[in-house]
Automatic annotation (TrEMBL):
<feature type="transmembrane region" description="Helical">
    <location>
        <begin position="80"/>
        <end position="101"/>
    </location>
</feature>
<dbReference type="GO" id="GO:0005743">
    <property type="term" value="C:mitochondrial inner membrane"/>
</dbReference>
<keyword id="KW-0496">Mitochondrion</keyword>
<keyword id="KW-1133">Transmembrane helix</keyword>
<feature type="domain" description="Cytochrome oxidase subunit II copper A binding">
    <location>
        <begin position="108"/>
        <end position="255"/>
    </location>
</feature>
<protein>
    <recommendedName>
        <fullName>Cytochrome c oxidase subunit 2</fullName>
    </recommendedName>
</protein>
<keyword id="KW-0812">Transmembrane</keyword>
<dbReference type="Pfam" id="PF02790">
    <property type="entry name" value="COX2_TM"/>
</dbReference>
<keyword id="KW-0249">Electron transport</keyword>
<feature type="transmembrane region" description="Helical">
    <location>
        <begin position="38"/>
        <end position="60"/>
    </location>
</feature>
<keyword id="KW-0679">Respiratory chain</keyword>
<dbReference type="GO" id="GO:0042773">
    <property type="term" value="P:ATP synthesis coupled electron transport"/>
</dbReference>
<dbReference type="InterPro" id="IPR011759">
    <property type="entry name" value="Cyt_c_oxidase_su2_TM_dom"/>
</dbReference>
<keyword id="KW-0999">Mitochondrion inner membrane</keyword>
<feature type="domain" description="Cytochrome oxidase subunit II transmembrane region profile">
    <location>
        <begin position="12"/>
        <end position="107"/>
    </location>
</feature>
<dbReference type="InterPro" id="IPR036257">
    <property type="entry name" value="Cyt_c_oxidase_su2_TM_sf"/>
</dbReference>
<dbReference type="InterPro" id="IPR002429">
    <property type="entry name" value="CcO_II-like_C"/>
</dbReference>
Length: 258
């Protein structure tokens, strides 16, 4: 039985969703682990502060205390309330900086994907097919222009199971288990190319290329949206990516370009 039949991968928003989407990259796995670590620390802090407040109100309430209490300097207490926050911040800084530097690590890419933001749609240019250099011209480029698939189009063509405001007229095809380089830019205003399952959120700035490396660990259908307020149709420029096995992707590229 395949792993897809054992586990349900949440790669798109759900109704009343309370958890993050399932990871498909090592970056997102690291973000989820750090999120769990951070939630544990926050829970301990909330419980400790809550207990201190309850104990203080209960023990030093004017109606329960017969005598007024006086409190002076305590070196031990000052050491505790200074060292505990410092140790807490240190426990958060170490995994945070480790994850931050691992996200900035650049590997030699096999395929380059140029993502261009427009008002209000995305276009893609896929090139640098290094793994297929022996069988095809490396100067060849795949181009996509992806617009929002409207509700009328979905209902007219009876696209069952399609997600409202997340589907596009073309789905960008990408290979799994392949080092990808994303080059993100914009032609007009600021956009942000974001896919939660990838753990990727890259700003698209006019006149500038932002680069990020992605290694997709599994196949599936992944959705995202622009995460930068870019104008009146900001909420209507979704991202739809279909990740397939690398060998299947190679056959697709060869059939498209030759």
């Amino acid at each position: 039985m395949s792993i897809e039949k054992i586990f349900f991968f949440c790669d798109a928003p759900e109704l009343a969703q309370l958890r993050l989407q399932d990871p498909s990259t090592t970056t997102m796995e690291g973000l989820l682990e750090f999120n769990k670590h951070l939630l544990f620390v926050i829970t301990i802090i909330v419980m400790l502060v809550g207990w201190l407040l309850f104990a203080t109100i209960s023990n030093f309430d004017e109606f329960n205390s017969q005598e007024s209490q006086s409190f002076f300097h305590s070196n031990a207490l000052e050491i505790v309330w200074t060292s505990l926050p410092a140790l807490t911040l240190l426990s958060l800084a170490s995994p945070s900086f480790t994850l931050l530097y691992s996200m900035d690590e650049i590997s030699t890419p096999e395929i380059s994907v140029k993502v261009i933001g427009h008002q209000w749609f995305w276009s893609y240019e896929i090139s640098d097919f290094d793994t297929m250099a022996t069988c095809m011209d490396s100067d060849k480029t795949l181009k996509y222009t992806c617009y929002l698939l409207t509700e009328e189009s979905i209902s007219e063509k009876n696209y069952l199971g399609f997600f409202r405001l997340l589907e596009t007229n073309k789905r960008v095809l990408l290979p799994s288990n392949t080092h990808l380089r994303l080059l993100v830019t914009s032609v007009d205003v600021l956009h942000s190319w974001t896919i939660p399952s990838f753990g990727v959120k890259v700003d698209a700035c006019p006149g500038r290329l932002n680069q990020v490396n992605v290694f997709l660990k599994r196949i599936g259908m992944f959705f995202g949206q622009c995460s930068e307020i870019c104008g009146v149709n900001h909420g209507f420029m979704p991202i739809a990516l279909l990740v397939v096995p690398s060998i299947q992707y190679h056959y697709f590229v060869v059939s498209k370009l030759f």
